[in-house]
Structures
1.
Amino acid sequence: MKHPMKRLLMGLLLLSSVLAPFCAQAEDSAFPGRKLFFSVPVMELTELYKKIDQVVVVDVRSKFEFDTLQIKGAMNIPLADRAFGSRVSALRKTNNDKPIVFYCNGRSCLKSYEAVIKAKTNRVTDVHAFDAGIIEWAKAYPQHAVLLGKSPVSPSDLIDDDKFQAHLLTPDEFVTLISPKTLVIDVRDTFQRADMVVLSEPVAHFGLDDRAQLSQYIERAKKEKKTLMVFDAVGQQVRWLQYYLKREGLKDYYFMKGGADAYTKRAAT
């Protein structure tokens, strides 16, 4: 009996060595950032859940994204904040014995890795990237997530890709639809708009953090029965705006696929 068992174990070891490269390739394709940032330590979904009370969780997205959907108990230090390094350094001083875990939107988002690099540059150690992102976290652990100020999160309230794609228009389709029956909003940040003018039609300009303006235009679109048309820099921030539009009961709206970046590339060809 010993010999067959030994042969079985040897066979399993051989099989694992053969499959290892394929498993690594699968992981690279599922988490493309890991290959680019191979020196960044990552924390897996279940690992973070088990250690959630033993780590400091930092959301490195914009305030608007953070206010929309976040890990319960996380703090927000946007990677774009010029004081990011000093804020993380200060955080380390007040939490000297806990690992710091950064997260952003998901597997294709690189901000969590970049946050680790930036933190290390500022001599902050024991930092990790949770690169599965907020959506996977909210689906797996809704009781530990907050959506528009409410927790737990109902999985049915999470907007999937199909619902998001249903409100996307290509730049050409977006421009063609503009008429007196539409309201067009450019929600890029001021510095994003500085060197790139998009569209010549009447366009409102304000960032998503300007809640008063945002609410005003949502109400105006409903009252005047106009289609709300919104574009950002690269087509990512509008995904989080969709949660607010859904909450406010607005159904007639569209986003520009790829944002201003796609529009300018289309105009250049």
Note: Confidence is low (pLDDT under 50) at residues 8-26.
2.
Amino acid sequence: MSDSISLLRKQMKAKQISKIMAMKPGRELDAIVAEYIFGLQVQRLDSGLEDQKDQDYWFTLRSNGRVGEKNEMERVPNYSTVVYSAMQILAKFKHWSMQSSPDGQGFEAYFYSGERVDLSNSQVNRMKYPSLAEAICKEGLLAVVESNKLIDKLMND
């Protein structure tokens, strides 16, 4: 029985990882980062403009700066497209490494628990990302998945 549970967990983890890697930088990725890395209660709201089809993501702040009580809404930051916003993610992880890719055409990042990881080690699974903000967001979400947390928004369909 435990083998089948272990297999199911591996399959769920693999599905989440593939969905994270397939996501493009943008508001949906930002919302998932806000919810699963920062623990915010994110809502998708209609912009209210007739000619604008896009909806945006918001979270609620209390008057004292805590999440959840009053109706003061804050827009989810552009974590996946703005480096300044993405850098806030780093504070949520104890250990991480980042470097430009060897070909100079992107970035590699790795978030981990435990001992420092040398990214030059061929044993480390390195992904190349076109932007630093995307690298930080996706590696942060991958670290969440690796810690056996379920990102249920990625499990639909």
Note: The helical segments are 2-22, 27-36, 83-90, 132-146.
3.
Amino acid sequence: MNFPEIFNRFFPAYQPIPAGNYSGTLRLQSSIPNKVHLRVEKNGTGIMILNGSIVLHLNQTATELTYHLLENRTDDQIIKTIQKRYGISREQAAADLNAFTGQLENLLNLPDVDPVAYLGIERVEVNTGAMSAPYRLDCALTYRHPDLSYLRSAPVERVKTELRAEEWKTILKKAWDAGIPHVIFTGGEPLLREECPELILYASNLGMVTGLLSTGYSLTEKTAQHLINDCGLDHIMIIFQEGDQEIWEKLDILIRQDISIAVHITITHQKRHEYIDLFEHLQQKGIRNLSLSTNSLDFRDEVFWARDKIAGMGISLIWDIPVPYSRLHPVALEIALSEENKETITGYSSLYVEPDGDVLPSQGENQVLGNFLKDSWETIWNAAIERRKIVNRIS
């Protein structure tokens, strides 16, 4: 027996947490038992779904702490494991555990928390690392819309059919089994599909975080309460349309509910005073999250101005949701101006499913990676990975 074999026999190497999906309940000091789903990646990072409503991106340390908590280990056992794992003092290991559980406690007590968070520890870049599946699936239930002049960018001419509710359920189950924790229902106007609430409920029952992008079509107090309280909808983004005076009534309805709300605005002109009035009105209503895009590169500077304006107002920017003209959002436009990056990498942290089941890297990008209903998950994900490699080489 040589020296390495003797050393490993008496001092075995630390075995990392195997990549995969784990679930269980997590009991914190000041809360009832919380339902947790943990996905561990090959590189040791992970994502936690807390109570089916919050997606937390975890660094390696936070992932390991979550795993040990799900194993129902005592604080003393976890502290000893972390102390040995990272070669730190018992005091430091205890402080790390207390800080982590304290952040979870605070998160659970925040009203209308945003559904995607980073725990305030080391932010994990969602477009990097060895991922086993994307973090989100964007499902366009239909490209129909009450206003036929709206969303002309949707490729309706090549999408001839709409999947039935049972077919969408097959896709959602397939996505959940692959480890995708977050789904957003979009369109067109997804509420034109009468099965939309049923699909939100199905995804929620699977354990997925559920979101909705809508113009607020047919939204009433009763339908909002049904979507949120009965179906388990976790967050909603309202697509603001100029001239739609009913939007304020619909926002008032949503603000009265217990749900995270965001508003999307498409920049279409250079009348900055009008946008200032709009931003201020939304802020007065209590809207804390905005999304921006433009329908023309001619308004790129206006997008940057609007981004800086809302930042100065203390409003958060949401930029990676499948909104109208979603490829012309502030971050993508900024990266396009960089000499080092020629294109944003889509189709990796999220995927977009069209009404007929075809999978695209993102909304409006007409490269079909496969069909979620007909092709295996491995085929679709491998196509996404290959596309990422090509974009990386080009960039």
Note: The first helix runs from residue 3 to 10.
